[in-house]
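Q: Protein A?
A:
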Amino acid sequence: MTNTLSDLLERAAGHTVHVVRGITDDQLAGPTPCAEYDVRALVDHLFQVVVNFQLLAAKKDADFSDLPRFVGHGDWRADFGAQARALTEAWAVPGADEGTTGAMDMPAALVGRMALGDLVVHGWDLARATEQPYAPDPLAVTEATTAFSQLAPKARSMGMFGEERPLPGGEAEVSDLDRLLALTGREAGWTRP
């Protein structure tokens, strides 16, 4: 298996799509590790990510100003899977990860890895919130951590990341996923209240 950006996105999306498909209707109002989102709002945010980052792959502007409402309309679980596939296909187009993208005016390769990080981290958020198992692709976690390490200062100043958390346990026992979660301000041991 190769490790292009689209391959990494596909592997990360596979795990997150599995979690989204496992969410039951009675879990939609439940809390998540993202205090500002319940499960429904976090799935809607993740829809927003996969749709808008398709546009960014095509070097078009994306609108993140309004949170769309996907959950509760049609077969939203299957629709999420289709949009996640479209995301990986958009980043597989030759040149998608070259140059800069959209009004963000950031390196396209970094922008694509932002989507990767959102899939990995929000996949974990949703799995925790709905008490599902979650073991993301290790290389996707590594790539997301590298990108988010670069973006963390700006993301914190914009309120997108919380303050970095201390790593749980001893340094040797900490997983790469725990490092990524701590970087984004998450408590790796978070459980539903």
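Q: Protein B?
A:
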Amino acid sequence: MADEYRTVAREGVHEIEISKSRFICALAPVATEEEAQAFVARIRKEHPTARHHCWAYVLGADGSVQKASDDGEPGGTAGVPMLQMLVRREMRYVVAVVTRYFGGIKLGAGGLIRAYGGVVGEALDTLDTVTRRRYRLAAVTVDHQRAGKLENELRATGRAVREVTYGAGVRIEIGLPEADVDTFRAWLADATAGTAEFELGGEAYGDV
């Protein structure tokens, strides 16, 4: 698994005009192929009279899933340059849809490649991107007397506190970089006089 990846922070749209053709790029963060295809379908419905809805998406923190479509444009002139731009910018878990309203002037293969790749690049420049880093999920359980102070210390030292659950004890779920696990165990033992329970879980990604 990759230690970190970049994606878009939110949905957004960026538009350019080239030789009277409108190129409208819609970007969105997505977790699965189903979400990516649903976003493509939604954009199609929003622009029913447009001639082309070309798309590309990259999934997986290591970019293991990469797909693209020219949607009627000459082969390799739309979806591929869009995908290449996403990969070049090291974007993951993202889908791009470029809707084209044809302006009557043909751009040629080179012009289309520059237009489709370029509008995705400009959209990425316009929208906020975020970096997500791999964490090891863990849970700390302490008594109620120590919980408030411990939670404050966790937040003060920059630990990623994910959830706090109150029951017989207080369970605090956190995210830890893998390299910090042993150091954290020692810190926790000191901070709670050895009274805290520590449980390691799986892996997840969180905002840096």
